[in-house]
Design brief:
Elements: E1 3-9, E2 12-17, E3 22-25, H1 40-62, E4 66-78, E5 86-98, H2 102-116, H3 118-123, E6 128-137
Helix pairs in contact: 1-2
């Protein structure tokens, strides 16, 4: 996997993934930024949520669950001193579908957390990671 990062100005950077997608990262105004994009550590959380959600949706589809939507609300804490690593991350999955079984969702989340999601397993080296979920019935 390869990527490239280019400094734009101040604390603003343009990142380009190996697959050719770009994202602007910037800092808060009080930190010298202009708030033109997400902070790098916010992208770490979003990437991790994407990684685990990909697993969960894929596993649920393979178990023939009628999933229509999946959202994840993330709540995290970081250390007070440098390096300000994540110390706690909580993922709240909101799975919408028709007749989705709670056991299937629980199993999919567990498999992602323990076996498949490289990002959350890596972050689990410094952070306590927890998960919960709710299921919403779709029309």
């Amino acid at each position: 996997m390869k990527a490239e990062l280019k400094w734009i100005d101040g604390v603003c950077f343009l990142g380009e993934s190996g697959s050719g997608h770009a994202v602007v990262m910037d800092g808060a105004p009080e930190g010298g930024g202009r708030n033109l994009g997400p902070r790098p550590m916010e992208l770490v959380l979003l990437g991790t949520a994407g990684c685990t959600s990909y697993d969960v949706v894929t596993i649920l589809k393979k178990s023939r669950q009628d999933v229509r939507d999946c959202r994840v609300l993330i709540d995290a804490d970081r250390a007070d001193s440098d390096p300000k690593v994540f110390t706690r991350i909580h993922f709240h999955f909101i799975v919408t579908g028709r007749g989705v079984k709670p056991d299937a969702v629980s199993r999919a989340i567990s498999l992602s957390a323990e076996k498949y999601c490289s990002a959350s397993i890596m972050l689990g080296k410094t952070a306590s990671i927890t998960h919960d979920f709710e299921i919403l019935e779709s029309d």
